[in-house]
Amino acid sequence: MFPEYDVIVVGAGHAGCEAAVAAANMGSKVMLVTMNMNTIAQMSCNPAMGGVAKGQIVREVDALGGYSAIVTDHTMIQFRMLNLSKGPAMWSPRAQSDRTEFHLKWRMMLEANPNIDFWQEMVTGLLIKDNVVRGVRTGMGVEIRSKSVVITSGTFLNGLIHVGEKQFGGGRSGEKASKGITEQLVSLGFEHGRMKTGTPPRIDGRTIDWDVMELQPGDSDVSKFSYTDTPQLENQIPCHITYTSKEVHDILKTGFDRSPLFNGRIRGMGPRYCPSIEDKINRFAERDRHQLFVEPEGRNTVEVYVNGFSSSLPESVQYKALRKIKGFENAKMFRPGYAIEYDFFPPTQLKMSLETRLIKNLFHAGQINGTTGYEEAASQGLMAGINAHLAINDQEPFILKRSDAYIGVLIDDLINKGTDEPYRMFTSRAEYRILLRQDNADIRLTPIAQALGMSGLEERMERVNEKIEKAKEVEQYFRKTSVSPDDVNGFLEQKKSAKLKQKVKLHSVLLRPHVSLPELSNILPNLTEFANEYDKETLETAEINMKYEGYIKKEQEMVAKMNRLEGVKIHESFNYHKLNSLSAEAREKLTAIKPMTIGQASRISGVSPADISVLLIHLGR
């Protein structure tokens, strides 16, 4: 019935879609298996992409040839650049998306790829021979053979939904759970655990009093996620902000005795940085209110997402409490919030390529690895799809270092440290934040993607080369062009900055705190004329390169030192137990994870600097 595929992707969420696209664009013949073709790339939780650190990940996925940023640009209804009051290492793009349009655009782009086929059914098991995956088996007993498999199961593996004292199987509201894969993997020797996430109630926007809430508009100067020619956003839709109150909290507390979170029915660990409203009330008892973001689900629907009100309390308690929130006095619910438990497999059982150690050519990506968030899932899917293609073609795996990308930080953390709670990316997790900015992801990663053999990147590379050259032109202009005191002293006085006493180069003026390139352009006609020849992002990159040159050099020096450790390879069959000088914990962790380099070994939890010294001495370094 089916030919043998190069790659089968199980699940069509954000990880699965990116995995399928990546493998297909590398040249593999891909089968994407999903339980429901109508929920491809479904935004199961909030209708948004990006955010702090997550926005950087989306831009990195785009720079590597993924589609998430393109889909977001085509379907967003609001754009904001977060953290603009901080340094550029912290700037993070975020967009509200039209949930329905997002799914439809993804499906259209997938169906336009001739290397991707589809099958709608539940996968209940893997075909395995001699510890090598050979394909999948579906619930109807259909066997589809392949050279590799990528599992991107999301919250569907033995998913269990909780609403108060009610619980029922499901991977998402209205959709059944997936069974069979967990049981087979456990029988093969894999460790597994349970995690929990949740979602808030959805509200009828026609019943909300918008006028009493705080308005949260999008940026007036709208940017984009993708480095390609995607549409410019017009006619943004605002979000709104409101707050809970002590009265709301007291009502919610009446349901705590029926909460699965507190009475032991939920065993999985929930996300630390996105807790349910009942968890927030319990953990932060001193607070009388919590902020809620009221977010539209799209242009052509009245459905509204209440960000910050995730709950698994009884629906009657949720409803009663909601109607005490300012603006929600007459609100009607479309459906209540709920919590969901699901199986995951600790990512320490994977190689850095996201291939499992126990079964060759089997890859895991997304929430099965213990992460949370569309962006984290998409990036893992992209990497797993690339590496699945490389593995079956006997090529070296593609591994991003921590100094290359936030994606590299994410995967390195998962493999070397593991996680016992849903892992979410933050800028604070990265050591080299000034190098890993959202504005330069294309410069960092697109050349790597082209060298890998990703198709369709020729035009992207032309853009990257042009951006690099033009940024250099801007920097040279600032270093060569002089400015007189009469030209800028009025401006500097307004900025409470020391006046010039003689002519200086524009570069030295730009380096002053609180002085920006656009501001200088507004007061210097010659600079205005020059700057108009360049696009906003090129000017931004050039300005960052100049203002943060010293910090960039320091981070590059740190990277060079760390790369020396990354250059010391360790053979996969190395016997750590014969080194008595290693601590017992180090021998155990190193044997389990099998680091590829000394650098990777140094980042494993429980491996001390003394243990690294022992390894270096043994390896003759």
What can be said about this structure in brief?
This protein is an alpha+beta fold and 621 residues long.
The CATH class of the largest domain: Alpha Beta
In the predicted model, the low-confidence regions spanning at least 5 consecutive residues are none
Strand content: 15-25%
CATH topology of the largest domain: FAD/NAD(P)-binding domain
Kindly give the count of domains.
4
- The CATH homologous superfamily of the largest domain is called FAD/NAD(P)-binding domain
Structural class: alpha+beta
Percent helix range: 25-40%
Number of strands: 22
Instruction: Please identify, by name, the CATH architecture of the largest domain.
Output: 3-Layer(bba) Sandwich
Instruction: Count every helix, treating DSSP H or I runs of 4 or more residues as helices.
Output: 21
- What is the alpha-carbon Rg in Å? 26 Å
Distance between the first and last residues' Cα: 56 Å
* Cα shape: globular
User: Mean pLDDT, rounded to whole units?
Assistant: 94
* Main beta sheet strand tally, sense and closure: 7 strands, mixed
